[in-house]
Amino acid sequence: MSFLVLFLLSLAPLFHSSSPLPYPYNTSFHIDCGSSTPSTDSYNISWLPDKFFTGGSTSVVSEPLHFHLQHEKTLRYFPLSSGKKNCYNIPLPAGRYYIRTFTVYDNYDGKSHSPSFDASVEGTLVFSWRSPWPESLTRDGAYSDLFAFVKDGQLDLCFYSIATNPPVIASLEVVQIDPLSYNSAQTGDSYILVNYGRLSPGSSQWGPGFTSDPDAFGRSWQSDSDYRAGKSESAKVITTKEKITGTEKAPNYFPMKLYQSAVTIEGRLEYELPVDAKLDYLLWFHFAEIDSTVKKAGERVFDVLVNDKNVSRVDILKEVGSFAAYSLNYTEKNLSSSVLNVKLSPVAGAPLICGLENYAMVPADLATVPEQVVAMKALKDSLCVPDRMGWNGDPCAPTDWDAWEGVTCHTNKNGTGLVITQIELGSQGLKGYISEQISLLSNLINLNLSTNSLDGTLPIGLGLKSLARLDLSDNQFSGSIPESLTSSNLQLVRLNNNLLEGRVPEELYSVGVHGGTIDLSGNKGLCGVPPLPDCPLFWENGRLSKGGKIAIGLSCFLFVAVLLLVIYLFCIRRGRNDYDFGLPSDLIFAAKRNRYQRQKSLMLLEMESQHAKGLPSVPLNPH
Q1: Is the dihedral of CA 368, 371, 376, 378 positive or negative?
Q2: Which CATH superfamily is domain 188-365 in?
C-alpha cells in the first residue's frame, strides 16, 4: 500500500496560529529537524530545535539558497547504524491532532539516490516513499499532512528503512484540533485521515504555510486547477470580499477565505482525484452562493456525483441563503480504481463549488497490548539493547513492517491486539540484566539471550506458564534458580556456563527426564541433581539451606523446652520447702526451749559420769 505525498512545493511557509474566533486548543509543536538552535519565522511562529528523536544524524540540503525558509534547509536522516526503525516520540495530551511533515532529499549526501522508506503514525502506515523520486520532488521537497488521534499521551511518528536507505525528514508540525472534527462522532477514532487533496479555486496555494490567511487547524489549501478534468479546465473563478456567515465554527473551524472564492462553469464541472485503491475515502464539499445575481432558491441547482453515483442535490440558497457557508460530506467505500471521479451536474443554472477535500480513511493498525509495551521497553533498558537494533516505537506495529529485531509477534486470541511470542537475542553483545517486567509477557514461548554479557539474578517473573524454550547460556547470571521456573511448560532449558548456585529444583530437572532438554553444566555452585554434586546438608547458595534453617529452628526449640523444664522443676522443689523458712514465733520459742533442755540433760549425764569416777562435782548454778 502506498500513500504518496500530495504537495510538491519549493516554498514552505508555516502555520499561523491566530483565528478570528477564540480557539480552545493550544497544544502545538513546530520542530526544525536537524537544527540545533531555535528560531522564529515571519509569522511569529517559534520553531524548536530538533528534539524528541530516537536516533539518526543531521545534515543540510545541497543547495540551501534554493529554499527560502530555514526549517526546509536542515534535515535529520536515519542510517542503518541507528536501526531500521526510528521515531519521533512527542509527549502530548490525549486528543486529535493535525500532523504535517516536510520531506526533502536534494542530494544532501552527494549520492544522487533518493531513499525508499515508510512512515507511520501511532503504529499505522501512512506514507511510503520509493526511489527514484520525481525530479521536482527530489529537489523541492513535499509536504504531507493528516489527522490522527493520540490516546496514550505520546505521538509516535516512526520511519522504517527499506533495504539500506536512510529515511529523511526536514520538519515536523503538530497542532491540536477539535476531536469532533470531520464527523468523528460517526466514523469513530480508529481512523487516520490522510490528505489526498484539499482544493480551493484560484491559481495558488494559500493558508498557514503559504500566506498569512488564518486557519485554526493549520490547514493549507491548494489550487484546484490541476485536478479539473475535461472542459472543466476552462471554468472561471469568482471571488467576493463580503463576509460569509457560518464560518470558523466548531468543530471544523473552516476559514472564511475558503468560501470567498468559487469556481463555476456552464455545463458539468468535473474533477479527477488520484487515490490508492482498496481504501475508503471521505469527501467534504464546500459551497457558498457568492454570486449576487442569483436571487432565489431554484436558480442554481445541481447534483453531486461520486464515481457516477448521485450523492446529493444541492440548492445553496434553499439550504442557507446567500453569502453563507454550506458543507456536506460523503464516504466512498472500498474504492477499486486509482482515480476518484467527482462531477457537479447542472439541474438549473451553472454548478458552483468553493472547496473540495479528499481524505483516505486509513484504519488504525493493531497495536501491541499496553502491558507488553511496558515490558518490552523495560527490557530494552535493562538489557542495554544497542541502537542498531531499532527498538523504537511499538514493538509489533505496523504489521506491514517487521517487528523489533529479534522479536516475533502474533495477534492475541480475541484479535484486538498484538502480543510477543518470541525474543531471539543471542550473541548481540547485550550487557545488563533481565527486568522483572518480563512477567508481563504472558504469551512468551521462546526466550533466547544466550552468549551475551548479562548478569544479576534470574527474576522470579521468568516463571511464565507459556514459556517452552529458555536459553540463557554463556552469560554471567548468579544466584539461585527461581522456583517459579517449575510452573512453566518448559521443554528446553539451557542455563549452562553461568555463575548460578544452590539446589536445582527437582521439577525443573524433570524436564530432561520427560523427553526435554536441560543443560546446567558450567555452574560450579549448582547441586542436588545428577550429575551435579550433592548439596551441603546445612549450607546452600552461600547461606543456610532450608534444611539448615529447620535444624537450627528445632535445636532452638529443644533448648528452650529443656530450659523451661529445668526452671519449672526448680520452682516446684522450692515451693515444697517453703515451710523451713516461715515458721510462727511460738514454734520458734518452743524449739529454742527444747534445745536448752537437751543441753541441760547432757550436762547432768556428764556430771554423773564424772562422779562415778571420783571426780569433784561442779555446782550447776555457781554463785
Answers
A1: positive
A2: Galactose-binding lectin (2.60.120.430)
Q: Which three cell numbers stand for residue 571?
A: 520452682
Calpha distance 64→126 (Å, rounded): 28
**Would you give the DSSP letter of residue 45?**
P
Q: How confident is the model at residue 536 (pLDDT cuts 50, 70, 90)?
A: confident
Rounded to 5 degrees, φ, ψ at 138 are -60, -40
- Are residues 160 and 118 in contact, defined by beta-carbon separation less than 8 angstroms? yes
CATH superfamily of 22-177: Galactose-binding lectin (2.60.120.430)
**212: confidence class by pLDDT, cuts 50, 70, 90:** confident
Q: What is the residue-wise DSSP string for 513-568?
A: HTT-EEE-TT-TEEESSTTSPPPPSSEETTEE-HHHHHHHHHHHHHHHHHHHHHHH
Give the separation between CA 220 and CA 15, rounded to whole angstroms: 9
**587 pLDDT above the threshold of 70:** no
Task: Give the model's pLDDT for residue 576.
Answer: 56
Q: What is the pLDDT of residues 198-209, one digit of tens each?
A: 999 987 889 887
Higher pLDDT, 606 or 495: 495
Sheet holding 154-161, edge to edge: 85-91, 154-161, 117-121, 124-129
H helices present in 143-223, as ranges: 184-187
The pLDDT value recorded for residue 538 is: 63
Judged against a pLDDT cut of 80, whether residue 585 lies above it is answered with no
Residue 216 Cα distances to 11, 18, 243, 605, angstroms = 21, 7, 18, 139
| CA nearest to 169, candidates 114, 105, 79 | 105
What is the assigned CATH class of domain 370-540? alpha beta
Of 39, 38, 29, 33, the closest CA to residue 57 belongs to 33
For cell 547485550, name the residue. 430
End-to-end CA distance of the chain: 146
3-state secondary structure 262-278: EEECCCCEEEEEECCCC
| Domain boundaries for CATH 2.60.120.430 within the chain | 22-177, 188-365
In this model, does residue 18 exceed pLDDT 90? no
Specify the 3-state DSSP secondary structure of 235: coil
Judge residue 596's burial from the number of C-beta atoms within 10 Å of its C-beta, 0-12 exposed, 13-18 middle, 19 or more buried. Answer: exposed
**Banded pLDDT at 558 (limits 50, 70, 90):** confident
pLDDT in tens, 379-395: 999 999 999 999 999 99
Contact 76, 53 (CB under 8 A): yes
DSSP letters spanning 433-472: ---GGGGG-TT--EEE--SSEEEEEPPGGG--TT--EEE-
Q: How confident is the model at residue 9 (pLDDT cuts 50, 70, 90)?
A: very low
Cell representation of residue 495: 542455563
Domain with CATH 3.80.10.10 in the chain: 370-540
Distance CA 382, CA 456 (A): 11
Using one digit for the tens of pLDDT, what is the confidence trace for 478-489? Answer: 999 999 998 878
Residues 506, 468: Cα–Cα separation, whole Å: 17
Q: Write the DSSP assignment of 340-407 as a string of letters.
A: EEEEEEEEES--EESEEEEEEEEEPPP-B-HHHHHHHHHHHHHTT--GGG---S-SS-STTS--STTE
Cis ω before 132 (30° cut-off from 0): yes
pLDDT at res. 607: 58
